[in-house]
Amino acid sequence: MDYIRLLQEHKLKVTPQRLEIVSILNKYGHVNIDSIYEKLKIKFPSLSLATIYKNINIMKDKLFLSELKIPNEKSVYELTKEQHSHIVCTQCKVIIDINLDLNQLENQIIKLSSFSLNESSIVFKGLCPKCKNKNN
Ligand SMILES: [Zn+2]
Ligand SMILES: [Zn+2]
User: Fold this and answer.
1) Residue 59 and residue 57: Cα distance in Å, rounded?
2) What is the pLDDT of residues 93-122, one digit of tens each?
3) Which residue from 64, 90, 115, 128 could staple onto 59, CB 3.0 to 4.6 Å apart?
4) Which ligand is nearest to the CA of 131?
5) For the chain, percent helix, then strand, then coil, each to nearest 5?
6) Measured in angstroms, how far is the CA atom of residue 95 from the centroid of ligand 1?
7) Of the ligands numbered here, which is closest to the C-alpha atom of 128?
């Protein structure tokens, strides 16, 4: 993945810190701000958490990143891609993307509420296969 071009396409100034944030998100998928901070500090020891927040928010405003809010958990960030839903393991906290066909559900919601829909965020929780087997 060409991170420099990706940032430029979103009209974001390319900085070493931003390149590292992209690389972290690309590698780990969904990451909360504390983990981003921990990983960034290895390369940029003097970086402050406030600076990371600022960078993340700018990247979010440019739709480069998406924030995923998980009930009772810290928000995680991922590189923006096609709309998708998520499932979170309540034990190991792993987060998996799932592509659901939401057409039927959305039609139902429109019918029941008379709203027009802009966005949706669906998070399921459960036990991943690894944790499920451990518990047996
Ligand atoms: Zn698990
Ligand atoms: Zn995702």
Assistant:
1) 5
2) 999 999 999 999 999 999 999 999 998 889
3) 64
4) 1
5) 45, 15, 40
6) 9
7) 1
The encoded tokens of residue 59 equal 């990247």
Threshold 0.85, pTM exceeds: yes
Mean pLDDT of 76-83: 93
CA of 89 to the centre of ligand 1 (A): 5
Residue 38 structure tokens: 């921990």
Other CB atoms within a 10 A radius of the CB of residue 17 amount to 14
Tell me the CA–centroid distance for residue 96 and ligand 2, in Å: 7
Encode pLDDT of 18-60 as tens digits. 999 999 999 999 999 999 999 999 999 999 999 999 999 999 9
In the reported structure, the alpha carbon of residue 116 is separated from the centroid of ligand 2 by a whole-number distance in angstroms of: 24
SS3 95: strand
